[in-house]
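Q&A log
Question type: sequence-to-structure
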Amino acid sequence: MDFSFSDEQQMLQDMLARLVREHYGFEQRDQVQRSEPGFSETFQAQLAELGVLAVPIDEAHGGMSGSGVENLVVMQELGRGLCLEPYLESQILGGGLVQALGSEAQREALLPALAAGELRLAVASEEPRTHYRPEWTETRAERVADGWRLSGRKSVVIGGQAAHKVLVLARTAGEPGECDGLSLFLVDPAAEGVQRRAYPTMAGPWACDLTLDGVMLADDALLGAGGSAFEALDHQLGRAMAAQCAEAVGSMQQACELTLDYLKTRQQFGKPIGRFQVLQHRMVDMTTELELATSMTILAACVADAPASLERSRQLIAAQHVVKRAAQFIAEEAIQLHGGIGMTWEYSLAHHARHLVMLGHRFGDDDRHLKAYADLLEAS
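Response status: OK
Response body:
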């Protein structure tokens, strides 16, 4: 099969690769990561100027209607550069939820601004006890005369520390564990009753925890019909999983290139250590895992926008599991082949390794994915 990019996709990749290479050096990235808001607003503006932020947004609202493959192209290059900008959380996941659930008025108000870089979104679906299962949401939204009253806690909201609006998953009916009764609300983080605690994550990007204490919302803060957000959220999380696989592949590519370059230049016993056959074998194993992860990522990108089905869910979970396994293997092997320098904070490989290990926990760990896969097999 031909997995090559189209001319337009190749141009997008080349443009973004050049932008990251010329304007997102590792030293600059390290400085940005150490201070709030946790990403480069200058680089974010450059992404907007080049139209990259508009890729996942539909054409009717100022975007490019990019598919899962275009998202793959963008996220792969952002992964190579260890970019901290919340592209996945804001453009792909947040924008996807607005497109799937929002009314036409909400889409007109949010999506053009999102595509132009004038708006940043974050998605608050995780809680301290949900463990990757949004149906266990305990945050409540109660109907009041003039709208809604929202109370609860949200944890590890990636990009939430600098988001202009946060999409908060809350229960309007039913009990924790039930898929029905979940709704999505558009919340202003500056509203009375909202508290944000910002911090950098182990993977690099910043996040925040949200405390919602009787936050009053207007009627139009609700996206879609009340109590029916679960299916749309589950579908958009699948798109985000596919995009994260691409981000991991980009980071793995860079880790492999750094390792190969080190094997060619590091001298031991009067010759490059890359000449030792045992190290060549380990480098081949890393490359093999990368190729397998790349193939599964392409599969995930091709099915990401497909309608919900058991087969789509199986393929996305399989891709996530394979990519997670490859990411951890490559991170560990790269560190071992580098020796002590691989753990040096001033060297980008250490950050790629940590980033790769932590990516495997963003949308579910091994236990979660294997259990979900077994449940899908049983259901079919």
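Response note: The longest helix spans residues 230-265.
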